[in-house]
């Protein structure tokens, strides 16, 4: 198995950098509780160095043609795919997610982003607008220095989903991973540099929220992209607003999945499993409020329970395992608290409901039925393997209740009725939606939330708008007509 200890804690100006004066960060393997690496938080001197390096690197990078920049990103994608196995092992150690998942969902998704935005880099053009003899042309320009701040559930993917479009547009990036999962972003930086990225263009600094806050408020920074919870999003958005910085906010959710009587039951159960138990439920877009129409409810619950009995919980390093632990003891305890509340508030436990009797931070995949809209488990983001089934009778009722939340990240509908599928999804207040499937997030599709779930979109051509700005140049071709 991969040795988890990195060469040093940070990657600044094209090289690994250590400063043991920073607060110690212990990286813990969630399946055993063992410390697998020790790093240090960035000191103010290192934050300063990273921002200076980014500022200087950005100039060199932006002066290259889009095609040249794209070539570096695409080369990095190739290296990432060649090393997928080793990178997936590291992702598994960092997060505890099963290797069965990380082999197909993390470095591969990061490589897709690098390849996709590498391909777009050469075609980021402006337009020509003819105005009689005069004309206007527009230029798509980089923003400058971007700060990326990541959550702990997808450390490789988040580092690349933010880095790839930022770099394609000619920006530099300083990325701060969650201190819970500090390892994978360093590999993204290392691979980008191996692929020919100039020094300073992609830097990684470790740290807790204070390092994130220092980066966000620094005047050298032009844009902030956060993946995190709504409370952190509020703070970061406010700090960015003070400096009038651009933002992308990818925040939490409490997303609905609506399952109608005519749905294909295997697909609906499969969708609910994908939308609640992948990564042990630690996915922002999860459909944790599963509204099931009364006619299909008993069959749905019975089949869901049966399929959950085939879960293979175990050592995530074993490729046969398909269900791993919570990322930390703290996250496990938060989820256990919600399980207690679910029972106390009267939800009916169908499966799971407790900590698994094994080492590490494992919680059994849990299903509650007869959940009502006012229960805590139906209102708050749990970020664990807890699926709540709510009953409904009419389409109107389901839509109104699905929308009765401050969040708006995702939504799903399962039905064989084509017109209903589109009618219902059109009324759900969410940024990333699925019909008859759930939680697929290819780089070609925009991803992001509405309402409190976020601002801006990642992935797809849409992300370019959030990492660049248009300069408009009016060209006068005739005499200047002034009033005096
Ligand atoms: P947090 O909001 O706790 O932290 C997110 C990141 O922000 C961490 O790196 C954190 O550092 C940092 N941070 C904390 N305070 C500040 C601050 N004041 N200024 C700048 N940075 C700060 O989220 P989690 O890591 O717990 O991740 C889970 C959350 O992320 C869930 O709500 C989930 O829904 C959301 N998420 C959203 C996704 C999306 O795309 N919409 C995808 C994945 C997750 P530190 O960890 O050191 O505190």
Any overview of this molecule?
The chain contains 16 helices and 22 strands. The protein has 484 residues and is of the alpha/beta class. The strands form six sheets. Strands 14-15-16-13-12-18-19 form a seven-stranded mixed beta sheet, sandwiched between helices. A six-stranded mixed beta sheet has the order 9-8-7-10-11-21, with helices on both faces. A three-stranded antiparallel beta sheet has the order 5-6-22. A hairpin with a 4-residue loop joins strand 3 and strand 4 (34-40). The chain is globular and about 75 Å long. The termini are far apart. Bound molecules: NADPH dihydro-nicotinamide-adenine-dinucleotide phosphate. NADPH dihydro-nicotinamide-adenine-dinucleotide phosphate binds next to helix 8 and helix 9.
Structural class: alpha/beta
Portion of residues within helices = 25-40%
List unreliable stretches of 5+ residues.
none
Radius of gyration: 23 Å
| Amount of beta strand | 15-25%
What's the average pLDDT?
98
Q: Brief overview, please?
A:
The protein is of the alpha/beta class. The protein has 16 helices and 22 strands.
List keywords for this structure.
single chain, 484 residues, alpha/beta, 7-stranded mixed beta sheet, 6-stranded mixed beta sheet, 39% helix, globular, binds NADPH dihydro-nicotinamide-adenine-dinucleotide phosphate
């Amino acid at each position: 198995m991969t040795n988890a200890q990195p060469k040093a804690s940070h990657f600044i100006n094209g090289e690994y950098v250590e400063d043991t004066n920073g607060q110690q960060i212990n990286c813990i393997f969630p399946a055993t509780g063992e410390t697998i690496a020790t790093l240090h938080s960035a000191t103010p001197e290192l934050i300063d160095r990273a921002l200076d390096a980014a500022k200087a690197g950005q100039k060199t990078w932006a002066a290259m043609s889009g095609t040249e920049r794209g070539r570096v990103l695409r080369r990095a994608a190739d290296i990432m795919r060649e090393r997928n196995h080793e990178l997936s092992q590291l992702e598994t150690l960092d997060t505890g997610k099963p290797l069965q998942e990380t082999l197909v969902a993390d470095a591969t998704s990061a490589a897709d982003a690098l390849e996709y935005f590498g391909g777009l880099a050469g075609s980021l053009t402006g337009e020509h607008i003819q105005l009689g003899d005069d004309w206007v042309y527009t230029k798509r320009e980089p923003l400058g220095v971007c700060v990326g701040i990541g959550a702990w559930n997808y450390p490789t993917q988040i580092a690349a989903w933010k880095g790839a479009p930022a770099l394609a547009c000619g920006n530099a990036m300083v990325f701060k991973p969650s201190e819970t999962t500090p390892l994978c972003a360093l590999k993204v930086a290392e691979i980008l540099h191996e692929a020919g990225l100039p020094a300073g263009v992609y830097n990684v600094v470790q740290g807790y929220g204070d390092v994130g806050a220092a980066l966000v408020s620094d005047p050298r920074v032009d844009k902030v992209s956060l993946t995190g919870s709504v409370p952190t999003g509020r703070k970061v958005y406010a700090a960015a607003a003070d400096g009038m910085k651009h933002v992308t906010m990818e925040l939490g959710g409490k997303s609905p999945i609506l399952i109608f009587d005519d749905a294909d039951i295997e697909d609906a159960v499969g969708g609910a499993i994908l939308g609640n138990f992948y990564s042990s439920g630690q996915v922002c877009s999860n459909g944790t409020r599963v509204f099931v129409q009364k006619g299909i409810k008993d069959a749905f619950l019975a089949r869901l329970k049966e399929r959950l009995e085939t879960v293979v919980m175990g050592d995530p390093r074993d490729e046969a395992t398909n269900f791993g632990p919570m990322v930390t003891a703290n996250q496990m305890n938060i989820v256990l608290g919600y399980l207690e509340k679910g029972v106390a508030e009267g939800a009916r436990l169908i499966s799971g409901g407790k900590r698994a009797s094994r080492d590490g931070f494992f919680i059994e995949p849990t299903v509650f039925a007869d959940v009502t809209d006012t229960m805590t488990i139906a209102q708050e983001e749990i970020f664990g393997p807890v699926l709540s089934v709510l009953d409904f009778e009419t389409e109107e009722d389901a839509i109104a209740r699905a929308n009765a939340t401050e969040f708006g990240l995702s939504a799903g509908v399962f039905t064989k009725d084509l017109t209903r599928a589109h009618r219902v999804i059109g009324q759900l207040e969410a940024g990333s939606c699925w019909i008859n499937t759930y939680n697929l997030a290819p780089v070609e599709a925009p991803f992001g939330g509405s309402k409190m779930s976020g601002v801006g979109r990642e992935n797809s051509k849409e992300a370019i708008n959030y990492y660049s700005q248009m300069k408009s140049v009016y060209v006068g071709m005739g005499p200047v007509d002034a009033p005096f």
